[in-house]
Amino acid sequence: MKFLVIFVNLTLLILFFTTPVSAADKRIQVDLTKQILYAYDNNQLTYSFPISSGKWFPTPVGTFKPWAKLSSTRMVGGNIALGTHYDLPGVPYVVYFYQGYAIHGAYWHSNFGHPMSHGCVNVSVDNAALLYKFIDLDTPITISGTTPTS
Length: 150
Hints:
Helix content is 18%, strand content 38%. It is α+β, with helices and mostly antiparallel strands. It has a single domain (24-144), classed as L,D-transpeptidase catalytic domain-like, CATH 2.40.440.10. It has a five-stranded mixed sheet with strand order 3-2-1-9-4, with helices on one face. The radius of gyration is 19 Å and the shape is globular.
């Protein structure tokens, strides 16, 4: 009987220490004012890097859950008459979080830290690859602050 109790306690201890961190322990925070994205895992800062948020259209604020992840996709939008049209094939590491808004890699600019997008959250391709692996479909994404105008 003593062996059984020790075995059960040891099994529970092993399960406790080897249970993977759930996505609920991960979170993304985007600070529009500072143009920085923070990724947390179990309340520990895992990643922090500059972003480019909406210049032509505002980036939505609030807390969202990703609804799709695509390793690559074509993005088309904007307005030709206003000079905001874009047609970008092969946009890498796309994580959609609200309607057509996403966190994704941007290969067409390197001006991170300054608003440049049509409302999405642009990050470097290398950083987008890290986020793509990090984010699960139940990882909360919170976007707050105010995008700088200059």
